[in-house]
Amino acid sequence: MATEAATPAVELRHLTKSFGTLRVLDDVCLTVPRGRAVCILGRSGTGKSVTLKHIIGLMKPDAGSVFVEGEEITSMGARDIARVRQRIGLLFQNAALFDSISVGENVAFPLRRHTRLSDREIRDRAQHLLSQVSLANEYDKMPADLSGGMKKRAGLARALALEPAIVLADEPSAGLDPITAAEIDQLLVELNDRSGTTLIVVTHNIPSARVIGDELVFLHEGRVIAQGGAEELDRSDIPLVRQFMRSEGSG
Amino acid sequence: MGRTVITFLEGVGDASRFAARVVVESIRPPYEFREMVRQLFELGVRSVPLIAAAGFAIGVVLSMHTRASLARFGAEALIPAGLAIALVRETGPLTAGLLLSGRIGAGIGAELGAMKVTEQIDALEAVAVDSFRYLVVTRVVACVIALPLLTTVMNFTGMLGGFTAETVITGMPFQTYFQQAFTPIEFSDLIPATLKTTVFGFIIATTASYLGINTSRGTEGVGQASTRSVVLASMLLIGANVLLVRLIFFFYPQ
Question: In what order do the strands lie in the sheet with A22-32?
Fold first, then answer.
């Protein structure tokens, strides 16, 4: 099984994507080994969310390829891509909860679709996931009745429902109060430490990137311009990166 | 100008591929059975009050018109039969189709449009659910099943309305009215006309799903998807009706 451990969780090769005349990703290469926690940083509109959507196959690149656990997914058929997606949990930037079903059923949804657990077990598991994100009492509420931060946390619980090997999170702590934000960061760190879940987290929040990320990747104008540990990026010779790292008053 | 034509033709091609995919995927298992039953309830059962009320009112009005015309020739005895034939052959199916283009078309267009712009469709895909099968195929199949049933409801309440109008004026008993109404109705009056509404159901749900799923530009786009669904579905339905009526006359010449 040495080869399996050696295959990276996610590998992007020369990923290029344009919307109209705007080139959002420009020859992005990135390797994320299994069990690694990577934070993708960058200013708004530099292709961070688009990168996540490529990893789960919601978008197809104009050029380049995406490997998930050694399998190339951009040319996969529907059945194979569904199998790969069950190993990935994605938290959307705006949570994207299904608004026609309750919060608890949102979390239960992937379990109902992809496991043979009984109704009772599914409810228990969904309830447990909700309490992990401090939403223990919101099972029967509808998504429209939640605040933005609560939706985000429910979205995270749904992303974790199938115990995915890879978790992609698009600004998990944006719009949360500092205490809840720290709790979410902690949850992600534990997930990474305890179960060896690979994390790819898009964030603007430098303090939480320092807490979560083994490695930080800085995207600018569709390109990776810096990559490394937080200390390395602090000392980066690119002014934009240093400025970004300092912006939270930590330097 | 040339560009507009090309864009239009591309749109038609894209929509046709979409419709073909609906047909193929609704035949091929696995089926999203639970979701389909839910849609049958949402789109079908919940349309019953509208269809029943409209049918009744149309029955009353048609009956009054039939009386006015037939009375000129002293043929009042033909009123129930005249109404039944008019209703079952054309008025029922077409009115039901157009009313449901409004209710169902707008509903699907807005719902799928909103799901699209809030990334819920992407979220379905992300949890490894085939959104096309789960959202589109279920709605189209539910609609194809619901339309003939709802048309039958409309025919029935239409006849009740006709009876009510008639009995108020002449005091005709219920049984007599329905005997006179249904005696001349033949297989070829009822069945082809009712079954053609399955095509209406396909048109309504497919058009609205196509426009809903291709929604962009936020809230404004959702409104547009909803409006366009109703307009386009109604127009296609009226056009298809002409062909279908012609086809029915071909197989069942009068």
Answer: A22-32, A10-19, A63-68, A71-72
Distance CA B197, CA B176 (A): 30
Tell me the residue ranges of DSSP E strands in chain A: 10-19, 22-32, 37-41, 63-68, 71-72, 88-91, 166-170, 198-202, 215-220, 223-228
Q: Count other C-beta atoms under 10 Å from residue A190's C-beta.
A: 12
In a domain, B10, yes or no: no
Interchain contact A78–B (C-beta under 8 A)? yes
Q: Which two tokens stand for residue A175?
A: 């719009």
In angstroms, the CA A58 to CA A84 distance is 12
Whole-angstrom Cα distance, residue B225 to residue B216? Answer: 9
Query: How many independent structural domains does chain B possess?
Result: 1
Q: Do A85 and B122 touch (CB under 8 A)?
A: no
Q: Read off the pLDDT of residues A94-149 as tens digits, 9 standing for 90 and up.
A: 999 999 999 999 999 999 999 999 999 999 999 999 999 889 999 999 999 998 88
What span, in angstroms and rounded, lies between the C-alpha atoms of B242 and B254?
A: 17
User: How many residues in total does chain A contain?
Assistant: 251
| Among candidates A83, A90, A114 on the partner chain, residue whose Cβ is nearest the Cβ of B126 | A90
The complex's ipTM?
A: 0.90
| Domain annotation covers residue B7 | no
Residues of chain B neighbouring A53 (CB-CB closer than 8 A):
122
- CA A242 to chain CA mean position, Å: 24
Distance (Å, whole) CA B181 – CA B88: 11
Task: Dump strand ranges (E) for A42-165.
Answer: 63-68, 71-72, 88-91
Containing domain of residue B60, as a range?
33-251
Radius of gyration (Cα) for chain B, nearest Å?
A: 21
Q: Is residue B149 part of a domain?
A: yes
pTM of the model: 0.90
Asked whether residue B82 is assigned to any structural domain, the reply reads yes
Which residue, among A59, A105, A113, would best test binding to B if mutated, counting the most B CBs under 10 Å from its CB? A113
Chain segment A63-83, per-residue pLDDT in tens: 999 999 999 999 998 889 999
Q: What is the dihedral of CA A131, A136, A139, A143, to 10 degrees?
A: -80
* All structural domains of chain A with their residue ranges: 96-163
Q: Give the full edge-to-edge strand order of the sheet including A223-228.
A: A88-91, A166-170, A198-202, A37-41, A215-220, A223-228
| CB-based contact A98 B119, cutoff 8 Å | no
Nearest CA in chain B to A159: B127
Tokens encoding B175: 């049984």
Q: How far is it, in rounded angstroms, from Cα B26 to Cα B141?
A: 7
Give the contacts of A112 (CB within 8 A, at least 6 positions apart): A122
Contact A110 B128 (CB under 8 A): yes
d(CA A143, CA A132): 18
